[in-house]
């Protein structure tokens, strides 16, 4: 999209006359966002397949029509609606994995797989729409509404494909006068248009994922038994609060379809500027209003709490306005006061005392010895930019800025899954209070049945959650990123996730040991593979490092999101948990594990899922250290780990989403198709590799090499070097680029915070009541009203603050307003503090565990306070300290690298 549009709008006359085949495809320009989109679709469809709409039977017996069923079977299993949902959802899941595999090896010079990629992406989109339509509707009006929206969107996609296929080429439609007008546009216009499209795509992706999950699993859960005129599998809110359920459904469905429409429009090659500026923001407004309406209707059951959510929108806007007013009225008097000067003097003396005792390492030594600094210094590690841009701009902080997005994505997704795991703990919750007073309704079952295991899970999960928030805050300060503290926080985060998974996903010590041993086995394999297959010790060229860093970026993004999927699925397995003790099972144990017929299926799911999770976690650990990932990528050891993680994901889906052979066959056929696709791709790759390894290919005697050499020699002439390259982005001003990065980080944080709080608000901690009189109401509200209110208000504040920040960041006229950006930055801090408060209130039920979370929250608050004081005392000294390091200018990238054009990049 970006490439083809830029070709018309920003190309020069010379560029328009160049050969079209040299222009990289729009898929290549948007590969990171397409991978994020495909992986989040895989996340949503994976979770929906394991937790199908309608819920699962809690006990064996017969339904209202006399058909027998076993505990753990989907309630809607025998209906045509469920079968249609199953096939659509499985198709979308498999197509998402294929898209990810294609994007991993996508090259700007390779066009052989583009047709396959586009076909699979369309198939993925159609499967997702079909699964939502069949899984979210249970009566005629809702079915007609969603079907109409889906058919309209499908018709638009078909018309769009026909227009793109039969329309004349863009180059032939562009008149010389249009080219002259576009040449006069400011260089910053190109950057702003690209950033707007990327931000809109990111926002639409987030909205698609959460609205899909919420539509298939509405708030309040599902009826477990047929009651009167309501059948098993109907939403519980349908019993007593039908109007609230309908309001949630229509708002959520509208947001889902509108977000899909935005994605289709943004991925169109012939998107015009007015189309993006005028209609896009109208669709985005529909999406955000739909999500706000769905959250207000689904997160509460009373009118006063619903009104609170609506009023919050205005409250957050007033808060941001007040921050801007304070910044304008009180900027300098504090710095000229005597107290300020005394504090600054104390800070300077403390810094000098630490330096004398060796607490501050020499900048050069730590720069060479710290793996985090090597990570930050690598090029191509961010959302955008290249090695040539880094050399040309001469920006001394370029490496740090590029690494922020990777670290930020890792921390935000870790915070997302740990927050959800704290709200919905493994083992489930008690549906009724104990007659002897040992537990209350909504308390975690695992805390009563396996106290030591639950506490191990709770402390590891909470540590990972707080460490993630600390990393998010540290990324915003460059001086903190340059030391070893960031490395410690990241490793603590990752090992906290591993410990929480090992403790919460199983009930026996032997299986916990197996889970931890898996991560060690992956690390040992990579080391052995690197030792035996990386025999040369030659130094890598800058071009080779750039290509390796590109591959690292894609692998890391995919590994992070696979870990997200498998972590949640491992803690809340398919079939759910027993909520009562029985003769052959215990409360808190997985239903499928204790069932004789499904035990082998559950074990297959557990081992596949655990293998995928541990392989992805080991990949993340290795990919953040250049000393490990560079040789690992060169010898394809990390690619093997990624393939193992994806195969484990497919195996877990096949074992966990179906209960009978006839539905399992379809999934195994899809898995076989993906395997065949990988084999064909490898055969094609090795065939091209062998052709490039021939003497003629090495000497560049082919016509393609000759053309490349000719263009390289022309590029070295003064006339050609003065013109911008075709397809390259205009170089933005440093201030514009810094503002763009800041907006991107704020947008990413706001999107993921809104995602996690939206889901937690619709599915509150403690679960919901299944009793007829109080069906759909929160159990925690009945057993501990003060704790529930604390969670609700903190969670709602965080959600609405995130949505308001998103809306403000989308305003083009306010993009470069420094005061507004600073105010929104403080709003994000408020957002994270609300997230902390909601986690502390919702993840525990007793003071001994709440005290730990409150202490962690206090530590984070103290850190934020110290961070702000040091920042103000030092006059943003951190930025100067990083900038004071002499820049080691990198040599220019050679024009002809004599690299096989079919090799993955």
TrEMBL record:
The chain crosses the membrane at residues 33-51, 84-106, 113-132, 144-167, 199-216, 245-268, 280-297, 309-330, 405-422, 456-475, 482-501, 513-535, 555-571, 602-624, 636-653, 665-686, 745-762, 790-810, 819-840, 852-873. Residues 359-381, 696-740 are annotated as: Disordered. Residues 360-371 have a biased composition (Polar residues). Residues 26-137, 192-301, 398-507, 547-659, 738-845 form the PGG domain. One of its GO terms (cellular component) is membrane. The keyword Kinase does not apply. Residues 700-722 have a biased composition (Low complexity). It comes from the Eukaryota. InterPro entries: PGG_dom. Keywords: Membrane, Transmembrane, Transmembrane helix. This is PGG domain-containing protein. The lineage of its organism: Eukaryota, Viridiplantae, Streptophyta, Embryophyta, Tracheophyta.
